[in-house]
Design a protein that fits this description.
Elements lengths: L2 H6 L12 H10 L3 H8 L5 H14 L2 H11 L8 H13 L1
Helix pairs in contact: 2-3, 2-4, 2-6, 3-4, 4-5, 4-6
Length: 95
């Protein structure tokens, strides 16, 4: 699956089969279901989960919590917008 196919899948009612939990979380976020997106990564360990978690709290508008999760991921908050961050994360997890 490539980025275009992933983005087209947003027209459906369910995420594509056999994608990572990180992509599933990003899919639900873009569909407007922040809670479901957050619940998928909330208790997962590792820097990848922390990275998606940081993005989600940025979307939520909780900058302090987002900053905590960016630090856990070993990254700083990107200087670009949330839409571009979403695209970069999707592409990262598609490869």
């Amino acid at each position: 699956m490539d980025f275009i196919e992933f983005k087209q899948s947003l027209q459906g009612t369910h995420p594509p089969a056999n994608i990572s939990v990180f992509l599933e979380s990003l899919w639900y976020d873009k569909k407007g279901n922040w809670k479901k997106a957050h619940d998928l990564v909330d208790s997962l360990p590792g820097t990848e989960a922390a990275r998606v978690h940081a993005y989600l709290h940025r979307v939520e508008g909780d900058e302090g919590n987002a900053a905590y999760w960016y630090r856990r991921a070993g990254e700083s908050r990107p200087s670009y917008g949330q839409d571009q961050e979403w695209e970069r994360l999707v592409n990262q997890f598609l490869t």
